[in-house]
Amino acid sequence: MSKQHIAKSALWVVISEIVFNLSGYIIHSVVGRILGPADYGRYGLVVTLTTMVIILIGNGIPTAMAKYISEIFDSNPAMVLAIKRRAIFLQSAIIGSITLLFYLLSPLIARILGDPTLTHLFRISTLIIPAFAAASFYFSYYTGLHLFNLQSILKVSRSAVKVIAIILLAYFFHLKGSIVGYILAPASVFLIAWLIDRFSVTKKIRAQITAQKLETASFPWQKLTNYAWQIIIFFLAYELLISIDLYLVKGILHSDYQTGIYNAALTVGRIPYYIFYALTVILLPTISKSTSENNHAETNKIINQSLKVMIILLVPAVVLMSVFAEPIIRIFYTSKYIDAAAPMAILVGGVGFLTIFYVMSFVSNGAGKTKRPMLISIFGLVINTILNYILIKKYALIGSAIATSISSLIVMLVALYYIRKDFKITLKIKNYLKIIFAGIIMYSLSLFFSQGRFIFILWAIILLFIYFAILYFMGEIEKEEIIFFRKMLFRKNNK
User: Do 343 and 484 fall within a single domain?
Assistant: First the structure.
């Protein structure tokens, strides 16, 4: 795969991820208005916990599958199908067990959260687990095959179904309906992905191999599980790291209203993280391939370019979302949620740190160094839990936002230290100081602009222009890079 093709694929994956997460924010905004703060807090707890279970446990085997398929998909098609068969068997066993266990433990989870009435909602949400897992399996499969454009189409389709199903069911059936919508959306995408695989993708792979090779190809299940269990613990620790504050707010403050307010702050504050999640979709298979080929120069180049681009884009996102927190909250949730602005203004900085940590973790995972991000995530979870427990009692929602931001900064710095050590990366501090300087200028100028409900969008565009102009004149954004990106985005496909 050429660098330009990788770049174009990355662009469309990012666009599909933006559409997917934009649909999520539309849902949160509309559902928050329909349900009101109290029921919206309950909705956030149930959906977040259920999806967290599948994200942290159910993605281990598919991620391992994507890694090993990406290393051989263009040289050994028979092994692709062998890896897939092993992954399906292991994934089915794991997801079936988790689904049953979650259903049985629903009363206990509700009691731990101090609200036994959540039991029935958790039991309804149990079906999110197999539906979500089935759809995610095919996303990982197509990632391993580098079919990023197909993956992007499926992601956009899921966005459309999710918006329609969840909002309609929330409107007619309120809280229970909104949870059922979370089951229908991934289930429908899985059906589409399965049909495409059965009648197109698998046919093309089988056409490249003989029947004998197909029968004799075998892949050891231990190889998948040895990689997957560390990924599972990483997902577990990381998901708890970014979500434990919401549960501690509920557990310590015992207020559905405060939980709903903090859930709104978290949901909007995580916009940068959700956008840059798309970068991990590209990084894992490309790093896997370059490291399996011992191409150290290419690996280092990918890491350096990814880190620089990410920081250049993260800095203005964090600054603008922090400065204009109030009008952003009003747009998403109306003035009923205005108390979420203050914690969100703090949280968005922590989200920026967490985003860098998460993306760099997938660099390590792609290279097979899964233990490092796993241990750092566990370390960060312990720190975040302790700090949240102390600061929520003293400063309520603001304390939780501060605790999460401090913990995020620590895990980011630790991750960057080991990325530099493990991959012998030379971080050009001078370049990053220029980016930070441009961000400080942008923040200083933003203090002179008003925070009107919609006029802030114009101010944000002006500030973005100033920020990128400063970087351009300081030599951090080269003219050739702008021309290449413009051609990549707008050029016609030439056969």
Answer: yes
Angle between helices 221-253 and 3-58 (to 10 degrees): 70
Residue 6 domain flag: no
What's the DSSP call for residue 197?
A: I
Kindly report each contact of residues 75-81 with a partner whose C-beta sits within 8 Å and lies 24 or more positions away, as own/partner: 77/205, 77/208, 77/209, 78/209, 78/213, 78/214, 78/216, 78/217, 79/217, 79/219, 80/144, 80/145, 80/205, 81/202, 81/205, 81/206, 81/209, 81/214, 81/217
The residue count for the chain = 495
Q: What is the 3-state secondary structure (H, E, C) of 103-132?
A: HHHHHHHHHHCCCHHHHHHHHHHCCHHHHH
Mean pLDDT over 207-217 rounds to 61
Judge if 240 and 387 occupy the same domain: yes
Beta strand residue intervals within 194-242, DSSP E: none
How far is residue 328's CA from residue 124's CA, in Å, rounded to a whole number?
Answer: 32
* Helix (H) or strand (E) run with residue 341 in it: helix 341-366
Task: Quote the strand ranges of 337-377, DSSP E.
Answer: none
| Domain boundary, last residue among 182, 199, 219 | 219
Whether residue 446 has pLDDT greater than 80: yes
State residue 478's pLDDT score.
64
pLDDT digits (tens, 9 = 90+) for 157-173: 888 888 898 899 988 88
CA dihedral 149, 152, 158, 162 (to 10 degrees): -160
Residue 107: pLDDT over 50: yes
Given this model, what pLDDT does residue 492 score? Answer: 42
Q: Is residue 259 part of a domain?
A: yes
- CA-only gyration radius of the chain, Å: 22
The number of distinct structural domains making up the chain is 2
| Nearest Cα to Cα of residue 155 among 283, 278, 28, 49 | 278
11 within domain boundaries: no
For the stretch 11-35, pLDDT in tens is 667 677 778 778 877 888 888 888 8
Q: What is the pLDDT of residues 384-438, one digit of tens each?
A: 999 999 999 999 999 999 999 999 999 999 998 888 888 777 777 888 888 899 9
**Distance between CA 59 and CA 27 in Å, rounded?**
24
294: left (phi over 0), alpha (psi -120 to 50) or beta: left
What is the pLDDT, as a whole number, of residue 397?
92
Whether 99 and 31 map to the same domain: the answer is yes
Q: Which of 287, 259, 357, 329 is nearest to 37 (CA)?
A: 259
Which residue, of 187, 219, 251, is where some domain finishes? 219
Q: SS3 of 287, please?
A: helix
Domain interval for residue 152: 20-219
When pLDDT is cut at 50, 70 and 90, the band that residue 490 belongs to is very low
- For residues 374 and 489, give the distance between their C-alpha atoms in angstroms, rounded to a whole number: 36
